[in-house]
Please model this.
Amino acid sequence: MDMILDAIKKASIEIKNLIETGDTGKSQNQNSTGDTQLKLDIASDEIIESYFKKLSNVKAIVSEEQESVIDINQNGEYLIAYDPLDGSSLVDVNLSVGSIYGIYKDDFKGSNIVASIYVVFGPRVELVYCDGVSVKMFRLQNGEFNYIQDIKLYEIGKLQAPGSTQQCWYPYHKTMIDDFFKAGYRLRYSGGMVPDLHQILLKGGGLFSYPSTTDLPKGKLRQLFEVFPFALVYKCAGGGAIDGKHDLLSIKTLHIHDTSPCFFGSNDEIKKVIEVYKNNG
Ligand code: F6P
Ligand code: MG
Model:
């Protein structure tokens, strides 16, 4: 695992330079989910792929920006699914973006995830590593990632980040979100999954939701590249991660680009989501 962590650190330093100096324009291509790829998405993907291709312990990789799995070493131990530059359309307005990595064994599925890593590119570059037990944060300082702290959620938080648009929410979901606001929760939503989830983790708790909606019944966020890695982080930080009713890491993946509704939060908020969703959705 150290080899993978090291490769991600090196790739992240290159991606940081790319974000600072690269072209934020669109490419001619669309990815498998139909998003127009930015030149930054493609360049970040190439950087990461070139590092992973050098690792003897990696069996195969799959990127949100690629159609299919790339085999690397038949005898490798790990499978890596990654989103090279999540929220890339926020770079031109200078908001934070991130990379997300899920590390799996045997098969790309939630129950097989063994570690996850995400990197936030904001005013500072921070890397969060979850080995399936604890969640550790590192910060890039003078070219090196230095350990800063372990991340633990409180039982209840104060922030909420509600995804998608209100017109597409089901009535029970809208009532639930309104109830959180009535209880005093503050809105914190940038439209970048990585910084939005990182904020809730570091401020001690709250709820991030991307539900089933009228336009996207299976949600928007991708299981292997986005949902499962953060599910592992939230669970190991002492919170929860559900699709409304079930633990996210127990749901089935039929296709590598499958999506899922998702809720990440501290325990109190997740209990409230379960209360609402057990009779709805
Ligand atoms: O990867 C998809 C993404 O950009 C996430 O980073 C973000 O949380 C989400 O989409 C935002 O979607 P919406 O604008 O529909 O709330
Ligand atoms: Mg993404």
User: Anything to note?
Assistant: Residues 86-87, 163-164, 191-193, 220 surround 6-O-phosphono-beta-D-fructofuranose (ligand 1) (CB under 6 Å). The chain is about 30% helix and 30% strand. The chain has two domains: 2-150, 159-277. The domain at 159-277 is CATH 3.40.190.80 (D-Maltodextrin-Binding Protein; domain 2).
